[in-house]
Amino acid sequence: MFTESNLGNDAAGHQRHGGWVEIICGSMFSGKTEELIRRINRAIIAGQQVEIFKPAVDTRYHDSEVVSHNSRSVRSTPVDFADDILLLAGGCTVVGIDEAQFFDDRLPAVVTQLANQGKRVILAGLDMDFEGKPFGPMPEIMATAEYVTKIHAICMSCGAIASHSFRKTPTKDQVQLGEKDTYEARCRRCWLEGRREQEENEK
Length: 203
Fold this sequence. Notes:
By secondary structure, the chain is of the alpha/beta class. The protein has a domain at 20-152: Rossmann fold. Helices cover 26% and strands 25% of the residues. It contains 5 helices and 12 strands. The chain has helices at residues 32-45, 82-88, 107-116, 138-144, 188-202, and strands at residues 20-26, 50-55, 65-67, 73-75, 77-79, 94-97, 120-126, 147-151, 153-154, 161-162, 164-167, 183-186. The strands form 4 sheets. A 6-stranded parallel beta sheet has the order 5-2-6-7-1-8, with helices on both faces. Strands 3-4 form a two-stranded antiparallel ribbon. A two-stranded antiparallel ribbon has the order 9-10. Strand 3 (65-67) and strand 4 form a beta hairpin. Helix 3 (107-116) runs parallel beside helix 4 (138-144). The longest helix is centred in the C-terminal third of the chain and has 15 residues, at 188-202.
């Protein structure tokens, strides 16, 4: 489990004044948002000034809350563009960003700017899309983040460790919001088998 015991301190235990970036990634149903909420709540309990953002397009559970699949939630601000976060996060010390893969390609620069301002930035998002390809701005942020946490789900087909998101519908759009009616967490083998079966059915 990720802990904050050494975050913000140098080797001698003195407080650093620089910010940093943490990113939580994985497949659907792996607990990314739940882990984001856990870290955010710890910061709130510590009395830190926190702002949480999510893409306005994501209204699956609630318009103005970040909600995990098991219904844990925290208040958030929906925004249309990554640059909106810069305008709204000025007074806080901790910035949370959920569903980071859905943001535009300005997000890596925005995250870097926030960290350079001395803020702790915590993001959660899918690292791969349903085709197993890097998703949106996630790869660039993962490359520059100080802390990368990749978490796994359980394969809904065989029970193994799952790192892929399998889309059960035949649509090809990269972005398609959905839950268990649309997606399954799968291990590599079961994901490949499902993809091959879909390709055969399309012939």
